[in-house]
Amino acid sequence: MGLTFSIVTVLHQSAPELAGLLASIDAHLDPRPQIVAVDSGSTDAGPGIARAAGADVVVLDGNPGFGAATGAGVDRAAHEVTVLVNPDCELVDSGLAALAARAAEREALLVPRLLDADGTTQRSVHPVPGRADALVRAVVPGPLLPQPHLATRPQAVGWAIGACLAARTDLLRRLGPFDPGAFLFYEDLDLCLRAREHGIPTVLHPEVRVRHLGGRSTQRAFGGEPFELHARRRREVIGDRLGPRALRLDDAAQALTFGLRAAVGRDRDRNLAALKALRNARRGQTLRPSGRARWG
């Protein structure tokens, strides 16, 4: 019998996607893991769907945010390893059990290869932001540079999208895992940078694959992509964790990336919206002497 582990998923208007995640767990994982579903202010059928599937459902008062909800779920985890899985993910095979078993062997944050709905590989892992080489990556065509998301062997990365992340439960509890004071977005970047400060790597295991539909509930909630909030949160995390110099370099790299993509007609409207949001965030955000972001 394989390792039994816990899965924590946070719900907020997630009913349309949750059924797919739960069905994929039943189809591919034996023994079935403990499933902890934390509801954060839903008004849809998500909590009921989770209960009917045998999940341990935690209902929070109001909507305290993704970080606080994830922490509540990890507190309820009953096994040595916990896998954080967004409700808009689906398993494609039994690989998640192998990832959980590897997580039990070391102090690390382990992530799978994330796939789009059509099976193509998402850019779900990234170098540490705020370094000079980010400017190079912004102007040099991607195929000419190493592409960590296309790695064929396990490798340490700077940070990873947290749609699916496995680690020892005690490690996640020590790390937070997410900042409960951060309502939404870039919790994964913050987690990976905090872990790195303690010598704990984030490791991509590309042989494990998980389909990630991506941002469905947040787009429904915000009526589209929340560019302004994305820009503010990224700057807040980088300024806090890496300091003013890294923030300036990341701002420059982000501006170059969005501007050049728009100039060549690559998702022009989307990149122009992201560039505008970055400019607005820079005008509205200053840094404390410690590096922590302050809004003015």
Q: Can you walk me through this structure?
A:
There is one protein chain. With 296 residues, this protein is an alpha/beta fold. It folds into 2 domains: 6-221, Alpha-Beta Complex (Spore Coat Polysaccharide Biosynthesis Protein SpsA, Chain A), CATH 3.90.550; 225-295. The chain is 43% helix and 20% strand. The chain has 11 helices and 13 strands. It has helices at residues 15-28, 46-52, 66-76, 95-103, 133-139, 169-175, 187-197, 216-222, 227-242, 244-263, 268-284; strands spanning 6-11, 34-39, 56-59, 81-85, 89-91, 109-115, 125-126, 155-157, 159-160, 164-168, 202-212, 285-287, 293-295. The protein has a 5-stranded mixed beta sheet with strand order 3-2-1-4-10, sandwiched between helices. Helix 1 links the parallel strand 1 and strand 2. Helix 5 packs parallel to helix 10 (244-263) and helix 10 runs antiparallel to helix 11. The longest helix is centred in the last third of the chain and has 20 residues, at 244-263.
Topology:
Layout: E1 6-11, H1 15-28, E2 34-39, H2 46-52, E3 56-59, H3 66-76, E4 81-85, E5 89-91, H4 95-103, E6 109-115, E7 125-126, H5 133-139, E8 155-157, E9 159-160, E10 164-168, H6 169-175, H7 187-197, E11 202-212, H8 216-222, H9 227-242, H10 244-263, H11 268-284, E12 285-287, E13 293-295
Parallel strand pairs: 1-2, 1-4, 2-3, 6-11
Antiparallel strand pairs: 4-10, 5-11, 7-9, 8-11, 12-13
Helix pairs in contact: 1-2, 5-10, 7-9, 9-10, 9-11, 10-11
